Amino acid sequence: MRQRLRYFSVLVVLMLTACATVPAPTVPARLGLKLAPAALGQAITLQQHLTVERNGRIDELDAALEVDADHLEMVGLAFGQRVLSLHYDGKELKTWRHALLPAQVRAEDVLEDLQLTMWPLDSIVQALPAGWKIEDDGLHRTLYLDEVVVLKIHYSGLPRWSGTVKLENLRYKYSLTIQSVLVES
Fold first, then answer.
1. Contact assessment for residue 165 and residue 155, using Cβ atoms and an 8 Å cutoff
2. Does a structural domain hold residue 24?
3. Quick one: how far is CA 182 from the chain centroid?
4. How far apart are CA 146 and CA 130, in angstroms?
5. Could you give the number of structural domains in the chain?
6. How far apart are the C-alpha atoms of 182 and 185, rounded to whole Å?
7. Is residue 93 a contact partner of residue 86, using CB atoms and an 8 Å limit?
8. Residue 159 lies in a domain
9. Which residues fall within 8 angstroms of residue 8, CB to CB, at 6 or more apart?
């Protein structure tokens, strides 16, 4: 009897240990979209106000964005101080970030959200990896991973970079509102 009890105890411990070491399901990496600046199809300069909502917290950022055939430049400001800079030439993404900028704000994610909202559908479709799909009806875009909606984008009008754009990331549970004004050159 004692040997059976010991055997049962060892079996329970092994089962509990196995349960404890099973890795929790993780959210897969982001799409990894990095389209050439020239794929936008034209040069633009914008002043933007970005509002990010996540877990009941709202953060705001002002930005200056410039895109031409050769590069994308973005400078983000909070309280009048530069907190983020991006330079992307279609091959390499160079960034600078203020030490107090939250770690969740990643330059790669900022670039991806910009490109998903602004670049032409054809450019995005050509760059999508297997399992990803995007639909566009003019004022709405929906991004899918394995037929599950992961991102919704709503535009207030056309062209896409004028007015207000609302991006809802269902996968990472945040929303981004981008209010843009075209700067005339």
1. yes
2. no
3. 22
4. 9
5. 1
6. 9
7. yes
8. yes
9. none
Collapsed DSSP state (helix, strand, coil) of residue 28 = coil
Any idea what the CATH number is for the domain that residue 63 is in? 2.50.20
Query: Is residue 54 situated within a structural domain?
Result: yes
Measured CA to CA, the distance from residue 17 to residue 9 in angstroms comes to 12
Distances (CA, A) of 158 to 24, 37, 126, 142, 185: 42, 20, 22, 17, 20
**CA–CA dist 59, 19 (Å, integer):** 38
What does the alpha-carbon distance between residue 67 and residue 45 come to, in Å, rounded to a whole number?
A: 6
pTM of this prediction? Answer: 0.80
Please report, for residues 48, 168, 173, the alpha-carbon distance to residue 58 in angstroms, rounded to integers and kept in the order given: 16, 14, 13
- Determine if the peptide bond prior to 120 is cis (ω within 30°): no
Residue 43, in any domain of the structure? yes
Tens digits of residue pLDDT in 98-120: 998 888 788 899 999 999 999 99
Range of the domain at 70: 37-182
User: pLDDT tens across 1-15, in order?
Assistant: 444 333 333 322 323
Residue 14 identity: L
Q: Which residue has the tokens 């982001």?
A: 30
Instruction: Please answer whether residues 163 and 180 qualify as being in contact, where contact means their C-beta atoms are separated by less than 8 angstroms.
Output: yes
